[in-house]
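Quick sanity check, ATP-binding protein:
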Amino acid sequence: MAVDVLQVSQADVRKAEILEEGHFIDVKAIDIAPAKLTKTIASFANADGGDVYIGIAEDKVKGVKTWQGFASPEAANGHIQIFEQLFPLGQDFKYEFMRPPTSSRGLVLHVAVQKTVDVKKASDGGVYVRRGAQNLPVKTPEELDRLHRNKGITSFETNTVPVPLDMVANSDVVIGFMLEVVPIAEPLPWLKKQLLVVNEKPTVAAVLLFSDEPQAALPKRSAIKIYRYKTSSSEGSRDTLAFDPVTIEGCLYEQIGAAVNETARLIEQIRVLGDEGLEAIRYPQVTLHEIITNAVLHRDYGIADDVHVRIFDNRVEVESPGRLPAHITPENILNERFSRNGNIVRLINKFPNPPNKDVGEGLNTAFAAMKQLKLAFPVIRQADNSVIVDIKHQRLGSPEEIIMEYLDENPEVTNRKVRELTGIGSENEVKRIFYRLAQANQIERVPGKGGGHAAWRKVPSVEEVGASESLF
């Protein structure tokens, strides 16, 4: 296999020598056994992808890394051959040599690994996943099952539940659904036709969609918990919890609507200081709806945990159990499509006024609604075993732009107001922004207001000053 050679600068060499090993990066010396390196490549492929640089030696005692690459591309043939057998060049794996200005330092082999849709094994036959700077072996059947679910190879929704069939075949939910959607069918034959009943047992999807109380059969993994924290801190605590968490139960269809309504109701109770006193903060209802719907429909129901909605003074966090499935990442989630729970997504869309009206477009709709209100886009981040979406009450644009836009419609602005609009937590940081705008002759202090009442206003334009003087 021919591998491209990329000429790099001395600055690139220096950057490579200070790379920190972590969840997405690993560096190795050329004398490492290729078989051992396959563990690293497989672990990246089974997690979130990453980059391996082979040819950077590290002095563990001194904590110093140096570029000491292969003398020639042929010197890396042993590595390339083993990698190519296990991880063929293509969409998921890319290999290239990096040649520095000083040829005596040799070539570093860069392996770019994408998150793969299937499980990759190292040369020892073992399965590994990347967590932090470690390649952790997947040892137990339970761990391997979870990895398969993370990859989207299997889904817990198809597992059967040892409960009576009447729980789904004779529930109020399924009877109402049949009368509304397929009035000519009987529940049990229809459920079997949809593969929601297997060997006379309902599947997880059947219980979640059509049981009146799924939580009785699937405890600790089928509810939504809503918290209200009276703080803007990065984490909530028992001291800042406004009241005991609210638990939303019932079938998924009813649960989503109830959770969105309760979240909106609690948000409306939050008051911030505005131009006319205390005002309610605003989040687009459609954003809350789409993100909560997404969390419920695409979570991993194999994890014994509920969906969590945490309402803070300046943001809402929605946490969904399970990592992003298959090839989906926080970076491509708005453009790529993959449904972990295909049956749930397909069948809930058959309900009247379904929560997922535009299948696959929910998050895009949520982002667009935030933009329309000139609020910052939601932030999607991945934890060890969950996905968290942060919906911040923070204006779009740089702090300077936000201040000037605000002053276009208001006579003055305070430090507190800017922190509220931008999400900046530091009073001193906002002061520095005020001073920079003042030095640029964009704003000035409001005379007579100092200390805790200090405020700033726009510097009048020449036309405004002229118009003012002409009045006298």
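Posting the structure with no commentary besides this: The chain has 17 helices and 22 strands.
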